[in-house]
């Protein structure tokens, strides 16, 4: 976005990363080519930033930090500012809207992978589909969100506008629930998970429970049935990301908290509210939490 001429400010808690960006700029490598950007403001807190200076604020923290992040930027939001949840998992947009209102809240289905190679250097590793931006039943003007999507796309971040953001987000969560815990716990890339009936059976069960919960909550899914989703999953979604490892595996490696509570854990909570049993999602949630505990992760 900065290379395309937009004024960008980065706020992040990783002091080494922010310091490297301030000193040498941000380097981006990987499937979108090599880029070096030096024209960005980078800092570890929102201190010194002013209300009304931002047309768009993107929240890209882990789901368990959403409330803290939104509280830290709420004072910067005025009538023209939109806040976008550029995140994994369920419940993030709701937390943003609670703080700034649905009329300023934008949803995003993000399905490209990135990892920090070194302070100041990020690699884009894989992309399955363009990022999709959209609004919920009540939201900001559609034309503004379409414009933001077009601006991002013109800045070489593949992005589209969608009228079905909730459907796409739930579809992404289905993908994450099926892959993240297994890839992380078994330490294998996505492609390995569809090569054996042992893991495929677990994935079918995860998706079956997921669809049962969504139906109970009257969430529109696409595809509409579990067999159709599994066909899409195995033949279309997995092949371009077959060599990719889940971010949860990186969480384990770095001994940091995972987003399991916004993925399989969220499906379990919604299932309990709707009277839908989710034993496979519950087991994976417990196994991930047990792995966190074994690694010394406490929260």
Pick out its properties.
Rossmann fold; globular; 2 domains; alpha/beta; 11 strands; four-stranded mixed sheet
Give an overview in words.
This protein has helices spanning 15-24, 66-73, 92-100, 142-154, 165-186, 197-216, 226-237, 247-254, 264-274, 279-294; strands spanning 9-11, 26-30, 35-37, 41-43, 56-59, 82-85, 105-109, 112-118, 121-127, 131-134, 159-161. By secondary structure, it is α/β, with parallel strands linked by helices. Strands 5-6-7-10-11 form a five-stranded mixed sheet, with helices on both faces. It is globular and about 50 Å long.
Q: Report the top-level CATH class of the largest domain.
A: Alpha Beta
By helix and strand content, what is the structural category?
alpha/beta
> What is the C-alpha radius of gyration, as a whole number of Å?
19 Å
Helix content: 40-55%
Question: How would the global form be characterised?
Answer: globular
Helix/strand order:
EHEEEEHEHEEEEHEHHHHHH
Strand fraction equals 15-25%
Q: What is the fourth-level CATH superfamily of the largest domain?
A: NAD(P)-binding Rossmann-like Domain
Number of contiguous helices: 10
> In angstroms, what separates the terminal alpha carbons?
35 Å
- List how many beta strands DSSP finds: 11
Largest sheet: 5 strands, mixed
| Poorly predicted segments | none
